[in-house]
Please model this.
Amino acid sequence: MTTLMNAVKRNDLTRVKELIGQGADIDAPDASGDVPLIMAAYQGHTEIVQALLEAGADVTAVDPGMKATALHAAAYAGRTGAARLLIAHGIDIDKQGPYNGYTALHDAIWQNHIETAKVIIEAGADLTLKSHDGQTPLEFARAKKQKELIALLEGKTHSQNNPT
Model:
């Protein structure tokens, strides 16, 4: 495990900033292939996410398992603050995972993370994208019986289809 990754996992912002200042490779994967930005986003270490983004961390990096982005990780774990930062730094909010076709919004719905889903929707997520099993975010929310998300998505889908 890299020293930077150790600091990320410990939520040691001071050490992360020191290592960045010393020229640490902010995108270097650890032995398992995980990169600091994705780990920080998944763990909800928002200040570390910010520091890594300011240092130029690669928002297109994917994890070694599901090939998910940092936004997928934040959405799956319900890390709304991290999701906001990633979106503000230009991460592709509609990136689909290669194995299941899920977007970050699908991941937020899967785990019923309402606030994180709202952030992704408000950022302009494409509500028509279908996962590999053919489900849009609304259809996925219905399948998961996520009532609050169903209502939110129905309202947004209606307004996207009927602009004023």
Summary: The mean pLDDT is 94.
